Amino acid sequence: MDKIKDLLLKINVKKFTVVFCLILAIAGIFGISSIILVLKSVKDESIPQAVLYGRFPSPNPTGAVTNQSEFSIIFTGDVIPARSVNRTMVGKNDFTYPFLNTADFLKSADLTIINLEAPLVTGCPVTDSGMVFCGDPRFIEGLKFSGIDVASLANNHAGNYGKEGVDETVSILNGSGIETTGIHNIAYKDVKGVKFAFLGYNGVSPFPDYLSSIDKEKIQQEVSEAKKNADIVVVIYHWSAEYSPFPVADSVAPFDPVEIAHLTVDSGADLVVGNHPHWVQGYENYKGKMIFYALGNFVFDQMWSWDTRIGTLLKANYIGKNLESFEFFPIMIDNYSQPRFLEGTEKQQVLDMIESRKL
């Protein structure tokens, strides 16, 4: 009980007061346990309540005082500043608009990671249709406003304007202090003395040679290299059939996400996060390492169904080099572009769905 009280006190104490807590005891699946926390914001309503909390065995079971740092990383679903998202921002002359409801939360983490599924190109046409995606370069204002730190470009739309479009996008992002991965590189970030490596791979057609694509041998080599140079290796994937509740391959996304995820962990990865299906999928604990198969949409214009309008943010909480816990924060997209946090029964519906899709 004392350990649980200590954990609760550590969760954003400057912004939250614990109103009601507990319970689900210890679920002995792969050594992971889950507890439900219900928190009430008292200072900033833009910071969502925490509901689902996956907790790992403590790296410090004795409770002794240590000098290990505590920090968090947030991952989003697909961020696609194209089509109606772009039209909405241009019409409002506000390129922070998609993030107005979520920026405070995104900035609250020590690192925030996105899958940027459209190049930022000069002269991007304003349109509501088509499958050739691009975003206005001014979208960088929204990314900076939200505190984005790393963007993966390993996906099937980042190359829609060729290598020139990717090069312009990388220049815009790097010029604003946002690291990029998925371009045959490893992005390194230091957080409170812990070194992270980020790698991105695309598993959805087409596969241009200037973006990193899924190749088993390449993944094994690069993940192994990253592990030699970093404390924690995070691999970001674009994979799986679209509009599927479970991670499966098809003719457009020909790689089995489960097989690739397991290979990635076996090669030395500590955390695997996927996207592309535009639906939220489940997660898996494989050999003590977490795999999150798809987080759904985050910024996109697919307003035509409930499944494509919802997504979840993933928050991974660390103590030193150890993943201590993870949380889901469900969102719903409004006005073809702007996510908002779900609350109450709507939020619980998404959380229950994620659990039902767990592998």
Plain-language structure description:
The chain is of the alpha/beta class and 359 residues long. It has a domain of 245 residues: Purple Acid Phosphatase, chain A, domain 2 (4-Layer Sandwich), CATH 3.60.21.10. The protein is 24% helix and 29% strand. The strands form 2 sheets. Strands 1, 2, 3, 4, 5, 6, 7, 14, 15, 16 and 17 form an 11-stranded mixed sheet that branches. A 6-stranded mixed sheet has the order 8-9-10-11-13-12, with helices on one face. α6 runs parallel beside α7. The N terminus is likely disordered.
Quick gist of this model?
The protein is of the alpha/beta class. The protein is built from nine helices and 17 strands.
Number of helices: 9
Please tell me the CATH architecture of the domain at 71-315 by its name.
Answer: 4-Layer Sandwich
- The chain-level structural class is alpha/beta
* Poorly predicted ranges: 1-46, 49-53
CATH superfamily of the domain at 71-315: Metallo-dependent phosphatases
How would you sum up the major sheet?
Answer: 11 strands, mixed
How far do the termini sit from each other?
Answer: 29 Å
What's the gyration radius in Å?
A: 19 Å
State the helical fraction: 10-25%
By DSSP, the count of extended strands is 17
The dominant shape is globular
CATH top level class name of the domain at 71-315: Alpha Beta
Q: What is the CATH topology descriptor of the domain at 71-315?
A: Purple Acid Phosphatase, chain A, domain 2
β-strand percent reads 25-35%
Order of helices and strands: HEEEEHHEHEHEEEHEHEEEEHEEEH
* Global mean pLDDT: 87
